[in-house]
Prior knowledge:
two-stranded antiparallel sheet; 2 domains; 14% strand; binds iron/sulfur cluster
Amino acid sequence: MSPKQTSQRAQRDIEIEGLDSARFDCVYPSCGGICCVNGRPPLEEGEAERIEQNLAKFLPHLRPEARERIESAGHLTKRKKEGLPALAVSKGWCVFFNDGCVLHKVGAEEGEKWKYKPWRCVAFPLERTEPRKWFVRQWKLNGEAWDLFCLNPKESPKLARETLKEEIEFAKDLESGQESWRKLKT
Ligand code: SF4
């Protein structure tokens, strides 16, 4: 391996706790998308900018009440999470949820499903604790308060390392700077 390849590989090295012990299997759409109920993901500066610049593409796909919320008060709340503004909720669901994530659907139509989606939603159930350090969310682990059934390790025999291949690669992309448009705060 050349020095350049070694350096590129090192940049993608991250630690993810629980890959060989946590169990997870996303069953969407049969769950109805419940991780988007009151999810309120915080947005990085670049993510908020990109959504703002492309709002006209998303509005026609939204639930009427969510569209009204965004047109009258924007897609962010004053509430801060991790020091960042969080996405707004309408009637209990993320404003961008309408039988699936509209940000995801529009991105997929344009050939890049994650180009508008907040990284926290892309990486779920992987959570970042500090640069290059992640873990797999599971019931009650590290103070997990969300009681989503899919975070219950008893719901699936499948190991996270097998079911989260895309998310793991995404976390590596994020840490190695390939998602720099998002402008991560830390
Ligand atoms: S941005 Fe998309 S995936 Fe994230 S909570 Fe909203 S609808 Fe769900």
